[in-house]
Amino acid sequence: MVVVDDFSRYILVEFHREKSEACEKMEILCKRLQNEKGAPIVKIRSDHGMEFENVRFEFFCEKNGIMKEFSAPKTPQQNVVVERKKRKPKVKYFLVFKSKCYILNDRENLGKFDAKSDEGIFLGYSTTSRAYVVFNKRTNMVMESINVVIDDAITRVEIDDDRE
Length: 164
Description:
Blueprint: E1 2-4, E2 11-13, H1 22-37, E3 43-46, H2 55-64, E4 67-70, H3 80-87, E5 100-104, E6 117-125, E7 132-136, E8 141-145, E9 148-150
């Protein structure tokens, strides 16, 4: 689901497995955005997808004073901003899971000859902050850090049990 704020052109992409989840995700998103921005959502514009044409979503919009607006069927040109974003997704910035990485050792006081980074394994993206989730091989701990360099040349790394 691609959501675009008409005023700021801020784009938010929500992934879900089935279209039936769209209504629930949209309700949660609306509440979150209203709390974050402190402003009510006035209108939701959508194509005629069945995920937003149901009694539950109609009730949610009426309860919160949100107007629903649909574009004409089979006219994607009425929703140009969203259609353009759906057509050309850019995924070049996604990183390969289990890639070898190097984590800046910024949490400990380092001596003059101590290593400035630790080797690790990239596990994914943090859901609570703008950071990567990595496994630090030296400390044998999963941690979050923004100071990570991913080695794209090596895509899979096995976790070694032999500790020195």
